[in-house]
Structures are given as C-alpha cells and as structure tokens.
Design a protein that fits this description.
The complex is a heterodimer of chains A (about 400) and B (about 400).
Chain A: H1 20-53, H2 84-117, H3 122-136, H4 140-152, E1 162-164, E2 168-171, E3 174-177, E4 179-182, H5 188-214, H6 220-238, E5 243-246, E6 249-250, E7 255-256, E8 259-261, H7 263-289, H8 293-301, H9 306-336, H10 340-343, H11 348-360, H12 363-392
Antiparallel strand pairs in A: 1-2, 2-3, 3-8, 4-5, 6-7
Helix pairs in contact in A: 2-3, 2-7, 2-11, 3-7, 4-7, 5-6, 7-9, 8-9, 9-12, 11-12
Chain B: H1 5-12, H2 32-40, H3 45-71, H4 85-88, H5 96-108, H6 116-134, H7 141-161, H8 178-204, H9 209-224, H10 227-241, H11 250-275, H12 279-287, H13 292-322, H14 334-342, H15 352-387
The chains are: A alpha+beta (about 400), B mainly alpha (about 400).
C-alpha cells in the first residue's frame, strides 16, 4: 500500500481572461469578425458603386460577341463572330504557348550557363558569372522593352529584310520561317517515330534487366538513336520524301507563305527565356555544389570512370536539390509572361484583363477569372512538387 | 682517444651528406602566372578552343559596347540632328544630349520646378536612414530603426505631398514621376513589407487555427498570382470596395498592391528564418516565463532575422525590380518617363530608345548590384561569427 505523502497542490486560481484557451478563442473570433466586417463593407460598397456606374454584374458577358481583333490565335477566332469566352481561351492558349516554349529554352540555356560557371576554364566561368549578375539585376520589363523597341522594332522593313540561310527572313514585322507542307504518304513518319520510341524504351528496359542479371552491357545509346531517328528517316525515304517547304516570299508590303512569328512573341519569348535562364543557372550551380566531393572520390575509388560517375552519382543527387527551385522558376516564368501586356503580345492578361475589361467594365469578374487561372496553375504545380518531394526525400533511419 | 666501431663506420661513409640541401624552386611551368594560364585556360585542346571562342565573344561585346557608349557617342547637341547618321555622316552611338536635356524629367517627373528641393531633401533623408540602418557598426541602430520605419515615412509624406499648415503647397501625386516615384514605391514596399511579413509569418506558425488559415490563404493566394494582376486588382477593384468619396488616388492604389505583394513574399522568407531556430530557444524562453510577444521580441526574432538578412535583401532586390510594373497601371515611374521621352519627335533617332534604356539599365544595375553586394558581405560576416 502506498500513500501520497504530500497533499496534491491546489489547482492554481487563474482569472478567466488569463486562460490561454479563452484568450486564443477571443483573438480568433476578433480576427474573423474584423475580416467579415471588411468583406461586408467591401461588398456593400461595390454593389452601390456598380449600381451608380450602371455596370452589369455576373458572367453574362461571357457569351457576348467580342468584336475586337487578336493578332495571334492558336484556335479559330474572328472579331465578328467570336465571344468574350472564346477570346479568353485564345489568350490562355497564347500564355501557355509562350510559357511552355520559354521553359524549354530557359532550361537549356540555364543549364549551359550554370555548368559554365562551374567550369575549370577561368574565362568561361567569369563570362557566365557576368551574364548571371547582369541579367538578374535588371528588371524584366526593361529587358522586354529593350528587345522589343530597341532591337526588333529597329530591324529593317520588309523590302530590306535580312535573309537567313535556309529560307527564313527577319524584318521589323517579325520572323518568317519556311512552313513544312506534309504531302500524301507522310503519315507513315509519325507512326514510325512512335514505333521507334516504344521500341527504344523496350530495348533499354531489356538491356537494364540483362545487365542486372548477367553483367553484360548493351549499346543502349546507339540503339536508341537508331530507332528514334533512323526509323522515321527510313519511312520518309520509303515513301519518296513526301515533304516540301513553302518559303516566305517578300511582296511590296506583305510577306506571303511561311510561318509568321510576331515580333511581340519573339521579344517576349527571348526576354523571358534569358531572364529565367539566369535564375536557373544559379539553381543548377547550387545543386551541383551541394553534392559533397566525397561522393565523387568514393565513386572513383570504386573504379567508376568520370562519365559514369557524373551520370550515376553526381547528377541524381544534384537533381534532388535542383528540381524544387527549378519548378518555382518555371512558375515564375509563367507568371512573368503576364508582362506581355507591356509590349502588346495577346496573352491572357493583355486580352482579358486589358481589352475585355475595358469593353465590359466588369472589373471584379474579369480580374477574378484571370487570378483564378494563375492560381490553379500555381497550386497544381506545387501539389505535384510536394508529391515528387515526398518520393525523392532521403529516408533516414 | 680511439673511436668505437660504430663511430668508425659512420666516419667512413663519406657519401652521406651532413647538411640539408636548400629546396629547389618548382619548375617554371608549375607555378606563377604561366602555370595558372596553363591550368585555368589551356589545360586541354577543348579548353584552348573554348578560351579562344569565349575571348573572341568577349572582345566583340566589349568592342561594340565601348563604341556605342563612348567612342561613337554624341556628347552635345540641341536636337535630333546631332544624333542622326544622315546629318552627321558618321556612325552614331549613344545620344547623350537627349539624356542631359531630360535628366530632370527622369529624376523628378513633372514635379513643379520651384518645389523640387523638397524631393532632394527626401532623397537625403532616405540616404541617411539607409546608411544608418545598413552599416553594421553604426551607433544606436535601434533609434535608426525608429527613424526609418516611423519618422521617415511621416515626414516624407508631409514633405512630398505638402501640408498648407507648415507652408508647403500641395503637390498632386499625378505630377510625381521618374526616379522619385520608383524610389517612393520601393521604399513604401520595403518599409511596409517587413513588419507585415513578420506578422504574417508568425500567424502562419501560430497555434490558433483561424489565424493560421487566414495567413496561409493570403500568402498562397498572393504568391500564386502575377504582380500585374495584383496591380490591376488594386487599381480597378479597390475603388469599388470603398465609398466613392474615399476613393484613393492612383499612386496610393499601386502602393497598396505592391506592399501586399511584397509582404507575402517577405512572410515566406521570415518563416524560413523562424523555422531555422532550434526548438530549445522557444522552450528556453518559455521556461524563464516570457510571454508570447516577449519571447518573439527578445529571443526568437532577433536571432531569426539576423540569419535571414541576406534573404531579406534579396527579396528587396526583387521588389526594387518589380516596381517597374507600376508602369502598366499608368504611373510615371523611371521606366515610364523614359518611354515617354524616347518617342518625343524632338529627339526621334534610331539610337534614342537604346540610349534611354541604357540609362535605366545603369540606374537599376547600380542599385541592385549594391544591394546584392551588401547581402553577400553580411552573409560572409554571419558565417565568420558562426565559426568562432
């Protein structure tokens, strides 16, 4: 039998306003009611102001005829027949087009510059460092205006177009590229390409399994190249090269044929890619430096050659560090593409928050829709990123 | 005296030296500038080609830059004829007389000429505040913080927009422009975003679910949308949400947008700093009986903010560059004044745009580079103090 030797200490008497639970409830209620009050005030003011300015509300404008032109659209659009809703999709697709191409170019350039900064060659690493410092310290808007107004708009006019070998032309109306025309029989080529890709994946899986089982290596790279490039080429030759190019022809005032790349698009794509590449270069450099040197030494001492060391030891560990900030740079690029509005490229913000907002006057709806689009893109990406991070995170004991 | 057998043996070995040879110098090819060049520029055939290519590229850029900015530049003249190739019969670089003539416009915008001393005083007061806060050895930096975050905003507001009671005539913000607006927007962003960002970061780590939810929603929302749309929202939606007679002017709306945007980014930077604090610091503070705000003010924030200084400055660099976006909602910042000036027919030449953009580039480059140097120096200093 045991017995408490000291009587239990009396419960301390705390005034109710000092009780942490009551306090925190009070703070939260106060915060939420303040927000509710602000929202209520904003909504009543908005209703009153809108009624006074005679502005309709709601999303009825979505199906009204737009009546303005858009200089570049990936889907069918005409100012007479298309609706504001159609204009929204045109703008969104233009944003996605410039963002996806920009991501590809920025990644390639960023990796080149980032690895150049780590080069043993002193001159190369200094030049890459200078590039990064300069580009990162200049506002993107200034760079876009420079490329658009000072470089592309200063090019010669149509009559004095600069001809690039291969049939392309460049002048102050844009860049004109040869357009490939697919003749009858070309459909075999994409089929061959698909077969080649599938076969290459199959071969590399088989080669890896065999190497794990027997230790024998297979020439995966050469076989992949042969399958992915050789098969379509063979198909092309088999059907007698059913492919022609229509070259842009300069008339007096206009250019006929070919693919036209607007100068606004070219300036935006170039500016965004260069700007983001400078940030990606820093991400890549930090990622490679984050792999401890002991990893390389350990790989060498196991007898790995420099190339497999890079491929099997350094790159996988560096990518773990690189990919999360890389994704946020991709998101930044997508959000920064909204600066298109300054140089007149018809992206989502320019078409929708610019022209549609001006015509309809429905600020609340238009701005809310635009923000929703970017928010959905951002949140989806960060969701995917969290899943990826969980997958590659180091599992510690 | 006879030698022992061992001593005799040693004495006989005449070919063993009894003095140390001076170390020889390493061969020429392994040290000094030659070795450095060999190692860092010419170590392999590939490297030789690389060095030549990069060197040629550098020379090409340098040649054109020097010619445009200095050698072919025009230094004086009255109008566009001084900078036209057809008139001058030579290659023309930058058109500097255009910049001299518009320099005051680039700095003050349309601020009334007799009142421009007020802008100069504002610049001087701001410079004092910045130097006081940033130099780590300055005396009484706590007073400096009060000066910068409380005194300076109030006095500059009175100084710039005017107050009849002290004899300063009103100057409408629509007349402000140029570097003045750029610096005002950046300073407001800097002054507001730090305290607001700290509050948001604390809220996001709070134990109260409602507070946490509100902070997370605000931060993620603002970080998920482009600044352009935030500025559009501030400039077209804000006037709808307040009673008509209180409708804020254009500059204030843009300032609200920039400040909110910068706060969300600052909150994430501060949160990273808070997360880097070991749990023992919180527990220690609570164990000595400090309340929440005392703990934050005396123990956590001073340490967390110190390690975050480089990131805070990097956020400020981003903010400074982002101020150019107020251009899009129709405010005359530096870039916009340059845009307006460069299309003026009086100076319309093929080189005017490039000259104007060069001025803007130098302005932003100087400010951003200074800030990033500061961040790096602070980082090194922190690393040194950590090492002990």
């Amino acid at each position: 039998m045991s017995r408490d030797l000291t009587p239990p200490s009396p419960t301390p008497h705390v005034a109710f306003y000092n009780d942490p639970k009551i306090r925190s409830t009070f703070y939260q209620v106060a915060l939420l009611s303040a927000i509710a009050f602000l929202v209520y005030g904003a909504v009543t003011n908005a209703i009153e102001n809108l009624a006074r300015a005679n502005i309709a509300s709601g999303f009825g404008f979505w199906n009204n005829t737009a009546g303005f032109d858009i200089s570049q659209s990936l889907i069918y659009y005409s100012s007479q027949a298309s609706t504001y809703g159609r204009a929204f999709w045109v703008g969104l697709l233009n944003t996605l087009l410039v963002a996806s191409l920009g991501i590809v170019f920025a990644t390639v350039l960023g990796f080149i510059v980032g690895l150049s900064r780590l080069s043993k060659n002193w001159l190369l690493s200094k030049v890459a460092g200078g590039f990064v410092e300069t580009i990162r310290n200049l506002p993107l808007l200034l760079q876009l205006l420079f490329w658009y107004n000072a470089v592309l708009k200063a090019l010669p006019d149509i009559r004095d177009s600069i001809h690039i070998p291969g049939g392309a032309m460049i002048n102050n109306r844009g860049l004109f590229l040869p357009r490939p025309e697919f003749l009858y029989g070309f459909e075999l080529v994409p089929i061959a390409l698909a077969v080649g890709v599938v076969a290459a994946i199959g071969f590399s899986v088989w080669a890896r399994r065999r190497q794990a089982r027997t230790g024998q290596q297979a020439p995966t790279a050469a076989v992949t190249l042969a399958l992915v490039i050789g098969l379509p080429l063979a198909a092309l030759a088999l059907r007698g090269f059913p492919l022609e190019f229509s070259y842009p022809q300069a008339g007096r005032f206009n250019i006929a044929g070919g693919i036209e790349v607007l100068p606004e698009f070219a300036a935006l794509l170039f500016g965004l890619s260069v700007y983001t590449a400078a940030f990606i270069a820093e991400v890549v450099r930090a990622g490679v430096l984050a792999v401890p040197h002991g990893q390389v030494e350990a790989a060498y001492s196991l007898g790995l050659q420099p190339r497999p060391t890079l491929r099997l030891v350094v790159v996988p560990q560096a990518m773990r560090v690189i990919i999360p900030p890389l994704t946020s740079q991709y998101l930044n690029l997508t959000k920064n593409s909204s600066l298109a509005v300054a140089i007149g490229y018809p992206d989502l913000v320019q078409v929708f928050t610019g022209t549609v907002l001006n015509q309809t006057g429905q600020a609340v709806e238009v701005v809310a829709i635009t923000m929703m689009v970017y928010l959905v893109i951002s949140l989806t990406t960060s969701l995917l990123m969290n899943i990826y991070n969980r997958r590659v995170a180091l599992v510690e004991r | 005296m006879t030698m022992s057998e061992g001593e005799l043996a040693v004495a006989k070995i005449a070919f063993v030296r009894d003095s140390v040879i001076e170390p020889r110098k390493p061969p020429m090819a392994m040290t000094g500038p030659f070795a450095w060049i060999r190692e860092r520029l010419l170590s392999s055939p590939f490297n030789v080609v690389l060095t030549i290519l990069v060197g040629a590229f550098l020379g090409w850029v340098g040649y054109h830059l020097a010619h445009f900015m200095l050698l072919d530049a025009v230094w004086s003249g009255a109008d566009r004829d001084a900078c036209r190739e057809e008139v001058q019969q030579r290659t023309i670089g930058a058109c500097w007389p255009f910049v001299w003539e518009r320099l005051n416009y680039f700095i003050y915008g349309s601020y009334p000429i007799p009142e421009r001393w007020r802008v100069d005083v504002f610049f001087a007061m701001l410079a004092i505040g910045v130097v006081w806060l940033l130099s780590l050895n300055a005396p009484r930096r706590d007073l400096g913080a009060i000066y910068f975050f409380v005194l300076l905003p109030v006095t500059s507001f009175i100084l710039l927009s005017g107050w009849d009671a002290v004899g300063l005539p009103n100057v409408d913000t629509s007349l402000w422009g140029g570097a003045l607006v750029t610096i005002v927007v950046a300073s407001v962003g800097i002054v507001v975003s730090l305290p607001l960002g700290i509050l948001l970061a604390l809220g996001r780590r709070s134990d109260m679910p409602a507070v946490r939810l509100v902070c997370i929603m605000f931060i993620e929302f603002v970080r998920g949308v482009p600044l352009v749309t935030v500025l559009f929202m501030a400039s077209v939606m804000l006037p709808l949400f307040v009673p008509e007679e209180l409708s804020p002017d254009k500059l204030v709306r843009a300032l609200v947008g920039i400040a909110l945007f910068a706060s969300a980014y600052m909150a994430e930077v501060v949160r990273a700093g808070l997360q880097s604090m070991p749990k023992g610091q919180y527990e220690g503070a609570m164990a000595v009986g400090l309340g929440y705000w005392q703990m934050m003010r005396l123990i956590i924030l001073p340490q967390a903010l110190k390690v975050t200084i480089p990131n805070i400055v990097n956020t400020y660099i981003g903010l400074f560059k982002d101020t150019t976006l107020v251009f899009i909602v129709g405010i005359f910042d530096l870039l916009r004044t340059i845009e307006v000036a460069r299309i003026d027919p009086k100076w319309a030449t093929p080189v005017t745009s490039t000259t104007g953009y060069a001025v803007a580039a130098i302005f932003y480059l100087v400010f951003c580079y200074a800030m990033s140097r500061y961040a790096r120096v602070t980082e090194e200093r922190l690393a040194r103090s950590d090492k002990r």
